[in-house]
Amino acid sequence: MPPATDNDIAPIVDTSHVHTLQRNALGTGGIVFMVISAAAPLTIVAGVAPLAILIGGVSAPLVYTIAGIILAIFAVAFMAMTKHVKALGGFYTYITEALGKAAGLGASLVALVSYNALQIGLYGMMGTAGHDLLQVEFGIDVPWWLIAGVGIAAVFVVAWRGIDVGAKVLGVLLVAETLILLVLAVAILAQGGAEGITFGTFDPANIFTPGMFAVMGMGFAAFMGFESTALYREEARDPERTIPRATYISVVFMALFYGFIVWTIVVGVGESNVVGAAAENTAGLVFATASDYLGGWAELVMYLLILTSVYASQLAFHNAINRYTFSLARDGVLPRRLYDTDPKTHSPVVSGLAQTALAALVVAVFAVLGMDPYLQLLLWVNSPGVVGIIVLQILTCIAVVVFFVKRPQLARRWYVLPAAIVAGLAMTVILVILCLTFDLLTAASPLVNGLLIAITPVTFLVGVVLAVRWKRTRPDVYARIGGHRDEAETIDA
């Protein structure tokens, strides 16, 4: 999206309903559904965990719990700052407040690119899963891009109906995919697994291996989007309590749920056989396990729920992207039209149309070029998004430290700064490991991997350069970078 011109700048204050989000629309549960649905539990367990097992071995379930612990520490620091920074914008706002407008604008562009990459790449998985399901189960050969196109339209329509409608849809879909995984886990444990209930996953000899370090990035990728709770501040009921509560619930749930479910898969296949089984049938490992322990019906249901899991994730990311775009347009960074909301639903409909058009364009390009929807659209487009979000989390840790050090008069718990430092260092290590083992995420050549990794620093640099330039040429826009306002613009639902 191009930067705004002077005539496109949104006014600092506009009480018109076409520039407002829906107030008091989301409680803790609705935000939790948004966040966990973005992470797509069934997609992670069935689509990514087998690869983690193949590379990391029987202790692979722990990468999710370890990542969850680090992100919970990060959340402590992140949430401490939300009490003092009210403006809509998530990472963009916090980084601007502490590190300056140049860093903030760079972070905003990284966030916009990263969330779009995470959302749009998933259309490759949706197209692949839908194509395979229709072909195998019903003998119908439907092009993957047509299925992806239907998904793009369905995401826009539900998001357009309003954030409360989206939360209800996500709640239903999330319960369904969570339930099937829990039923499978109980069945495996009740039947004693393939080799009994074993605990080799927790053996230090299996934990401290090169393979485990190599898949730590996959653990963090499973939590992508959890920090988007802050983007719903304007639409949340009692945001001072709702936002932190939803953040902590989401992180703890995912850390425990992922670790437990993937451990039961290891038990179900057998510790001595699971790595070989993952190598032989990576994509179908969890589905085959469901068929073995629950019957063929479960395998079919799980294939159907993979589609709804991907859809739920795309809808959640679509909503987060729209709110980032909305906040940037309100601050004058993006064209004013992206700041418009629907008069009835108060959803950021123009931002939604822009994101939908971008998704359709990317899918069309991959389809026309005959590129693989899974190996290229999903893996190549998603992976820079993972890098970008981790970079933003590291910058946010630095921002928390700088923010409170400069403002010693602000009340905070003693553990906030240590939490920010520990989380920032841990995520920096993870980022280095991820970049060194990037081929595990992309299955691409070194050249392609280098280009994909470069997207994040280049995007950040573009934002910094724009901010420096705007300070001289467009001081009004520069002054509004970061969304500094006393109160967010909202209306009663």
TrEMBL record:
Its membrane topology: Multi-pass membrane protein
Location(s) in or outside the cell: Cell membrane
TM region positions: 31-56, 62-81, 102-122, 142-160, 172-193, 205-226, 246-266, 300-321, 349-371, 377-405, 417-441, 447-468
InterPro entries: AA/rel_permease1, APC_superfamily
Pfam family, one: AA_permease_2
Alphabetical UniProt keywords: Cell membrane, Membrane, Transmembrane, Transmembrane helix
Major subcellular location class: membrane
Domain of life: Bacteria
Keyword Membrane listed: yes
Statement: the UniProt record of this protein carries the keyword Membrane: yes
PANTHER family, sorted: AMINO ACID PERMEASE (PTHR42770:SF16), AMINO ACID TRANSPORTER-RELATED (PTHR42770)
Name listed for the protein in its UniProt record: APC family permease
Lineage, opening ranks: Bacteria, Bacillati, Actinomycetota, Actinomycetes, Micrococcales
